[in-house]
Amino acid sequence: MSELGRHDDGRAALRSTLRATLHATLHAARDFLLPPVCASCDQLMSDPAEALVCGVCWSRLPMLPAPRCERCGHPADEYECRWCALLPPFVRAARSVCWAKSGTALAIVHALKYGGWMRVAEGMGTRMARLAFPDDVRRERTALVPVPLAHARERERGYNQSGLLAAAIAVKWKVPVWNDVIVRGRATESQTRLTPEQRRRNVSSAFTVAPRLGARLRGAHVVLVDDVVTTAATLNACASALFDGGARIISYVTFGRAPSIGDRIETTGDLLNGNSRRH
């Protein structure tokens, strides 16, 4: 190599080193002036790489206890699974990371939905991607479909939280996200304070498949993504639209699942003590 070439290589290496040093310095200055805090507990974070939720809060998630139903993933006992009865026959499987009733799990969900903490979706989606689905679901899943948000809510929020979760899962599963397959045909009320029957009526026929995108659904096994499932009314309405639009089968994945009366919720303290409680 000529003397000139060696000088050029040396200058390029120096520029690269200076850029890396400047980048690290700016990040260190930002963390010093604006130290990262946990989106759940508001405590300072020692490791901001945890997607804006501290390790302690992630460890406090109230996981769904085993044994669980092979189809719907709900905690099972010696009796017939009650949660499967909520699902249409064309829904193959459903999985959720944790209970979402109060405490840490709900704080994380609220940080994403209402607090503008978009990066929280990375940690939530990573945990959703780790959920164990039946072998046929893992083999067949064609794409992830986020539950669409009402246009007014998405404009106000600036994003669809289900879309962010789907994007995070897609990186791990290596499948595409079909963001515009389902559209809301009409506005619906917030489901928060509605009874199960009111929830079903509220979203009945509220979703349709975009005509220009329906062809891609033909024969597909798609996975619907949402942040929390309660009675599955919204997911079921979306699944019905997908099935009518040509999808062969549908599965669900959510971060949280609202417990029903009689469901067993194991807290961190219960797990450490080897006990469980019924709420």
Structure description:
The protein is an alpha/beta fold and 279 residues long. It has a single domain (61-273), classed as Rossmann fold. The protein contains 10 helices and 8 strands. It has helices spanning 3-33, 55-59, 103-113, 120-129, 135-140, 151-157, 161-173, 196-203, 233-244, 268-273, and strands spanning 91-99, 141-146, 182-184, 207-209, 221-229, 249-257, 264-265, 277-278. It has a 4-stranded parallel beta sheet, with helices on both faces. Strands 3-4 form a two-stranded antiparallel ribbon. The protein has a two-stranded antiparallel ribbon with strand order 7-8. Strand 5, helix 9 and strand 6 (249-257) form a beta-alpha-beta unit. Helix 4 packs across helix 7. The longest helix is centred in the N-terminal third of the chain and has 31 residues, at 3-33. The radius of gyration is 22 Å and the shape is globular. The protein starts with a helix and ends with a strand. The relative contact order is 0.14. Residues 26-33 and 268-279 have low confidence and may be disordered.
